[in-house]
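Workshop exercise sheet. Pairs work together: one partner reads the sequence aloud, the other fills in the structure field after running the prediction. Swap roles for the next sheet.
Pair: D.N. / O.F.
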Amino acid sequence: MIEFSLFLALVVALGWPLGHYLAAVMRGAPMRSDRLFGWLERPLYALLGTRPEIGMGWRGYAGAFLLSNLLLALVVWTLFMTQAWLPLNPDGVPNMRWDLALHTMVSFLTNTNQQHYSGQAQLSYLSQMTGIVGLQVVTPVMGLAVVVATLRCLFGGRQAQTAQRPEGEALAIDVGNFWADVVRATLRFVLPLCLVLSLLLTWQGVPATLAAGPVASPVDATAEFREQKIPLGPVAPMVAIKQLGSNGGGWYGPNSTVALENPTPLSNFLQLLAIALIPVSIIFMIGPFTGRRRFGAMVFGTMLAMSVISTGLSLWSEAYSGSAQDIALMEGKEVRLGAEASALWAATTTQINNGSVNLMLDSAAPLTGLVAMSNMLINAIWGGVGCGLQQFIVYLLLGVFIAGLMTGRTPELFGRKIEAPEVKLLAVLVLWQPLVILGFTAVTLAVPGLAGNSNPGFHGISQVFYEYVSAFANNGSGFEGLGDATPWWNLSTAFVLAAGRYPALLIPLAIAAMLARKRRAPESAGSLQVETPTFALTLTGIVVILTLLQFMPVLVLGPVADHLALTQLLAR
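Structure field:
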């Protein structure tokens, strides 16, 4: 708890000023740094064929988001399937199989980084630096841009004639310029943070080189296995954006458990801090960006309460399972950094859509796995870059609607009525999650040979369920113990990855645009006050009911039953 308290204090201390700076960046107002960044941004705007001062309607904004994703998908998918014939491949890595390349592309395009390939062994330096790291930089910023557009609709979307509409046509809500939002946030916010963290990690011993890896003779060499190639590469820059961008995909297959990727306790703490830094900064951005600081405080307080409860349960679970009488549960645990540091990481990386690991979650205590699954099902305890706040807005709208019905008031959010069209779209999002996750989990478990899991018991259910929950939540972590490089796993999870990303980003934007078009009624004493502790508590209860209770049967059959069976076994 001391480490958690220090971690939380530093995240808040750094996130507060960064949030205010990010608000200024996303407002697009003149800044002192314009002289520094302007000469980089202007050529990019010219290349993209856009003018940053010209806004878009929400449909144009969503279209630009989808178009950019489609173009990136085609380029990166082709890169993975042709990397053997391209430069920067000193280790002679072969081309990726089409289905594995498709899954990898979709995984990184959706800011998930779920890895069915074996780390550095199946990617060239060119694929890592351009395909992987390129998507790790751009895709979180795209999520941030969409949530900023949503906030503009909810708190200040102005009626404006957009450049895309002919003269005389109806006016639309100006939600900003997608290309300008992405460029400004990337150059002025994300990349400078990555540069600082990359240098700090290199100082701690994380490799940063383009040379081929050395060859060593292992101490247990045999006639068949006389030498081992140690893979290196530009690891530090990739690890920096992997953590800061809520990405999570490691250079090495075992991720941050590998000493080359996470060599020291200080590097472990720096990476842990980086995981939460930008998501927390986005929460602190809300107040100065929208002008409603009490609303930002309510969002922060609600997320903080859920985070403390989740982290406390995770730390207790691993401490309980690591006691002397339960020494059997230490199998597969990370002993280099300690069970407590691993439990803190497991809680943080699933509260945030990061997914990196410094222990193998398959070896975590069953209740730790339960906490991790619950975090991802909620998907709004800090959440990913942009995605977490967007999911919180969904809960907010549902909370306002339900609270309005409970109190006999017309559901209104900041003076705008939430009516049948908005509620129908919210219902689609609520039902979409269990339909996709439980549907694919049931098929995979029912058809013999599809799962390829290492455990046929209760833990086997958790392995399969976790994989689809992680994909839908755009988290990327996994219990593993699965034969997940097969065509079934690659194609099914690729669908779930996309199903969890795009509706969750674009439907709230559409709802916010619908609300922004409505006449705003003045708030009165009879209006529902959402910026209060009472509503925050109500909202937390709604989150638990909507996300956890509907998955209760599979959670009982999986991690809860696994915990009870293990407890009974150890009692003998």
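Discussion prompt: Residues 157-171 have pLDDT under 50 and may be disordered. What would you look at next?
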